[in-house]
Amino acid sequence: MAIAAALVVVPLGLLFLLSGLIVNLIQATFFILIRPFSKSLYRRINRVVAELLWLQLVWLVDWWAGVKVQLYADSTTFELMGKEHALVISNHKSDIDWLVGWILAQRSGCLGSTLAVMKKSSKFLPVIGWSMWFTEYLFLERSWAKDENTLKLGLQRLKDFPRPFWLALFVEGTRFTPAKLLAAQEYAASQGLPIPRNVLIPRTKGFVSAVSIMRHFVPAIYDVTVAIPSNQPPPTMLRILKRQPSVVHVHMKRHEMTELPESDEGVAQWCKDIFVAKDALLDRYKSEGKFAVEQRQIGRPVKSLLVRYYPFSQEKKTIKVLSN
User: Fold this and answer.
1) In which pathway does it act (predicted)?
2) How many domains are there within the chain?
């Protein structure tokens, strides 16, 4: 069984690496030849090119492993997804949360213009990290003294982004684990804060800076809550590669940026309050097995399936279209 899986996974991995390097080369070419003269045109082109790469990973979740991502959202949130700039904040439940975000972005039509705040080391990863760099992801060192200026400059560069984008920010700062939850609970008890049960305590400095800069050109914050049904195994990258399915439930709630307080202290408290509410939401989810809003049908589009099986022809077609 393991040998049979390896005989399939290894060729797929090599194909992804080769096609990814081609995407990187295309991105580098347009970065050198077009971006110095028209940043807007470069971004529009890169959006299409980057999506070719990301769709292969979406295929991995959708069609290879058969992981089902089920969205729960009110009508306003669902209707505006992908039609506006948004700052996305989420709990960090698993090592594939970023892939879950990409799946929702793909369903919303903004996969190629989805951005995130990442660890600085990520940009050195061949193919994925390089493509993220060309797509203007923000890379930080997890030291506020070093990161404050980098974050502010990166956010300011998004003011003239030509298409709706999502910028994902995991304000907990790290992935949820029982050990980290215990540390968060001890800290909360020592500070007289609400004791978390399902989330970590958010680190608000980056969020406050993001809101301070983006409130003038980003209309909304999407509050995302990721949960795994109790009868399902938690999805991991290893399980996905082994073709082991799972189910992920995602609750998404849109907040108008104008709802947030004007002061930095108020914005920080708003973020903390959101995570207290998220903690209670996850308590209710555990008892009911679902979120108390309508489940939205987002399907499993064939676009990623087509790109997976025809990566080179798709890339050649893109180059031809963009050169005309």
Assistant:
1) Lipid metabolism; Phospholipid metabolism; CDP-diacylglycerol biosynthesis; CDP-diacylglycerol from sn-glycerol 3-phosphate: step 2/3
2) 1
